[in-house]
Amino acid sequence: MKRNVELVVISDVHLGTYGCKAKELLKYLNSIQPKTLVLNGDIIDVWQFKKSYFPKPHLRVIKKILSFATKNTEVYYITGNHDEMFRKFTDFELGKLKVCNKICLDIDQKKTWIFHGDVFDASVQHSKWIAKLGGKGYDLLIIINNIVNWFLEKMGKEKYSFSKKIKNNVKKAVKYIGDFEMTASELAIDNHYDYVICGHIHQPQIRDVVNKKGSCTYLNSGDWIENLSALEYHDHQWKIFYYDDHKHLLKDDEAEEIQNMNHSELMKIVTNFSG
């Protein structure tokens, strides 16, 4: 039985990389029936895209998204820095699928501003090669982390996140996350938004921010590499969905296919879009 959800926001999936948890994401997507699905950037990792590595589960995630768009779900694909190639397709529409750089929604009469968030990242804007190098290093870290966690699970011990440990203990990382959240929130307040929703920093969050000019709620959808998280809005309430908290309730992914489109045809589309 699929859960009906008014709005779902996911980001930072990084399809096409070794760290992407595509199978887990597919289970989640197969468990819900959203009225609106927002893909808030870095869904396909064009920076690290290789024809030699794009497994079937990654392609099936794309198929599932397209399946939503051919039925009754409004799908917004907001571009991020890792899929910036798609920015040349801004305002492209295919059925209920729309490609854009940001969106503004009215949710229960509350103004909602949704964008990826890389606009705040100076390393992306001014030193792209450094950012790309950092992305490759992060991907390698995740690969090593996955191997370590495999051994930990075999030994009956809890998983360990190298990246979270670094983020929580390196002062610059902690400051960057705090600055990012405050910058997004202050801009939202200045522009009279009630909600501001970002991705980019792989840090799931819902928090109220208040300053002298007003208040807003800052939200971040996290990622599908480490946190395996999404934002859901239903019955006038926001919540963060964590896959690890619900995986025992999710069935194995269903083999939903899009009519007249096989894996090789879909791979051609991904390759063409990736440049």
TrEMBL record:
Question: Which SUPFAM superfamilies does the UniProt record give?
Answer: Metallo-dependent phosphatases
Q: Which residues form the Calcineurin-like phosphoesterase domain?
A: 7-204
Q: Which InterPro entries match?
A: Calcineurin-like_PHP, LpxH-like, Metallo-depent_PP-like
**Which residue spans traverse the membrane?**
none
GO BP terms, alphabetized: lipid A biosynthetic process
CC terms in the record's Gene Ontology section? membrane
One of the entry's Gene Ontology molecular-function terms is: UDP-2,3-diacylglucosamine hydrolase activity
Give UniProt keywords alphabetically.
Cell inner membrane, Cell membrane, Manganese, Membrane, Metal-binding
Q: Name one Pfam family in it.
A: Metallophos
Entry superkingdom:
Bacteria
The record's annotation in PANTHER family points to:
BLL8164 PROTEIN, UDP-2,3-DIACYLGLUCOSAMINE HYDROLASE-RELATED
**UniProt protein name:** UDP-2,3-diacylglucosamine pyrophosphatase LpxH
Q: Which organism is it from?
A: Chryseobacterium defluvii
